[in-house]
Design a protein that fits this description.
There is one protein chain. The protein is of the alpha/beta class. The protein is built from 18 helices and 19 strands. A 6-stranded mixed β-sheet has the order 1-7-8-11-6-12, covered by helices on one side. A 4-stranded antiparallel β-sheet has the order 2-3-4-5, with helices on one face. The two termini are 38 Å apart. The N terminus and C terminus are likely disordered.
């Protein structure tokens, strides 16, 4: 797999960096405006690509005398003037595009000369550098993986497993990720949901060192390389220049949520609408840029104060940072150093299984029988997440599901049962927009008749002291708890107000969903593989009866 050389990471005042950084991608991002044939990094790009060294944006025209070089560190001569006008002298200065300090100094002078803000000019330089770097990359074609008959048969056999989701969790464990059985299953379902019309998204939240990035990486190892896009950082406009179908039905992984902060709005739009459109002025002409989704997004963060608009679109997965989980990890580390090998996992088999999955539309015949809490408007989106999990589980088991006369996969009660087991703890833990940690502490305080100290809560829940302190601080900030020092100088906490608990009980039990299997097996249904009724193989019949 070809890996791109990472781009510079220097921040400007707005947190932007020039372009987005990606790794592990077989398909290059679509060229930016004005790009042409490739050129090596140290050649004069003007001869190779025409006007790639020229950018017109927001009324300004930027022109470089030659292409910048990351290796040599040589400065370029940059000329800035009003677009479409020769009146007045241009602004000319030397500039190192790969130096944050040089970009800031240059942007400050240009902003003063042309009535712009420094952040605007920094953004212009980011687009110009991104445009040049895309021209320097040699074009690559999309690699189509053709499966041999043997590989396809093996992939089909894996997809025929009734306990496929459990096997996926075991595969992630075999890759070296210890514990977190529910989060492994949720992560795999989110990655698979990229094939839906409305995929899921997830954000992993935990302190540093809890294994957030590792869970993202291990999950990605079971996905086809051509279906995964790694991003380290995004500038506000970077997504618009990736090309129309570069992200379509892909799993997008952002190492740290902070790296996508500047692009929050386009990411939310791509999640909700599955489409991005930008109209901007390039070389004096108005040009539209379109990016088609949908995407499944997964990111990680240590921040406990995230944008509510981002959280409402994502499953929030809290990783286990308890001493018990730490002990499990340490034991696994010692076993590894002792030479005890873990079960071998064929990642190619799992990637092939994902390759042969088809992006069917899914119907949930028993959906009217389901219930969900109605506490806040956030529950409207959370209800959709539950339905999407059901649909994704059915999509993953499409070789074991039937289809209706419209060709839609029919979810079964087993799909709801799997989703219920994963969602119930999340719903039960959530209170009034509190984080799962704060919700757990709230419930513990509700059990106590007398004020308690941080250390007592930490010991009861088996959490680190710092994690407990943050959760208590969140409750105080929401005016749900108060603290006061006792006679011994210890700070004790108690509840100020009560909140309805037990919201998870508002989810209907899987056993209460009646008749769903019979509906799915109606005479109008046909198998996911497109066979007519009555012509399905005995092997698939047996699998469906098990499900």
């Amino acid at each position: 797999m070809t890996k791109k050389e990472p781009r510079p990471q220097g921040r400007d005042q707005s947190g932007s960096v020039p372009g987005s950084v990606s790794r592990g991608d077989k398909t290059p991002a679509a060229p930016g405006p004005g790009t042409g044939s490739p050129a090596s990094q140290d050649t004069d790009l003007e001869d190779a690509t025409g006007n790639v060294l020229v950018l017109e944006v927001e009324g300004l025209r930027y022109e470089l005398d030659h292409g910048p070089s990351r290796k040599s560190g040589k400065k370029v001569v940059a000329t800035v003037q009003l677009a479409g006008s020769t009146a007045g002298p241009p602004f000319v200065d030397r500039l190192d595009l790969y130096s944050f300090r040089s970009r800031v100094a240059f942007s400050t002078l240009v902003a003063e000369s042309f009535g712009k803000t420094r952040d605007q000019v920094l953004g212009h330089l980011a687009v110009l550098l991104d445009q040049i770097e895309r021209a320097q990359e040699r074009p690559k074609t999309v690699e189509t993986v053709l499966l041999s008959p043997e590989r396809r048969v093996a992939a089909e056999a894996l997809l025929g497993s009734a306990d496929l989701l459990t096997k996926a969790a075991e595969a992630i464990d075999a890759l070296g990720y210890v514990g977190e059985p529910e989060n492994k299953r949720l992560a795999y379902l989110v990655a698979t949901s990229r094939l839906l019309l409305r995929p899921l998204s997830a954000i992993l939240r935990a302190p540093s060192g809890a294994g957030k990035s590792e869970l993202l990486e291990k999950t990605a190892q079971l996905m086809p390389e051509e279906s995964v896009e790694y991003l380290s950082r995004l500038t506000p406009a970077s997504l618009y220049y990736l090309g129309p179908d570069h992200l379509r039905h892909k799993l997008v992984l952002v190492d740290e949520q902070a790296g996508a902060t500047d692009a929050d709005y386009p990411i939310r739009t791509l999640q909700s609408r599955g489409l991005l459109r930008l109209v901007t002025v390039v070389k004096g002409k108005t040009e539209p840029f379109t990016v088609n989704g949908p995407i499944a997004l997964m990111s990680a963060t240590t921040d406990s104060n995230l944008n509510p608009e981002n959280l409402s679109r994502c499953l929030e997965l809290t990783l286990d940072d308890s001493p018990k989980q730490t002990k499990r990890i340490q034991e696994a580390q010692r076993q590894a150093w002792a030479g005890a090998g873990r079960p071998q996992i064929d990642t190619q088999l799992w990637k092939d299984a994902q390759r042969v999955l088809e992006p069917f539309e899914v119907a949930i015949p028993f959906a009217p029988e389901l219930t969900f809490p109605t506490r806040t408007t956030k529950d409207r989106r959370d209800n959709m997440k539950l339905l999407s999990l059901i649909a994704t589980h059915a999509l993953l088991h499409q070789r074991q599901r039937e289809r209706d006369e419209r060709g839609r996969l029919l979810a079964t009660a087993r799909d709801y049962e799997a989703a219920f087991r994963l969602v119930f703890p999340l719903v039960e833990a959530e209170l009034e927009d509190l984080s799962p940690r704060a919700s757990a502490v709230y419930r513990e305080l509700a059990r106590r008749k007398h004020p308690v100290t941080r250390r007592e809560i930490a010991n009861q829940l088996g959490w680190p002291y710092t994690t407990t302190r943050r959760a208590l601080d969140e409750l105080v900030a929401h005016e749900l708890a108060s603290s006061a020092e006792d006679e011994e100088g210890l700070r004790r906490y108690s509840l100020l107000d009560t909140v309805t608990v037990g919201a998870g009980s508002e989810l209907r039990e899987p056993s209460a969903i009646g008749g769903s299997l019979e509906v799915a097996k109606s005479g109008k249904a046909r198998q996911a593989r497109g066979k007519a009724p009555g012509k399905q193989s005995q092997r698939h019949k047996g699998q469906q009866e098990k499900d």
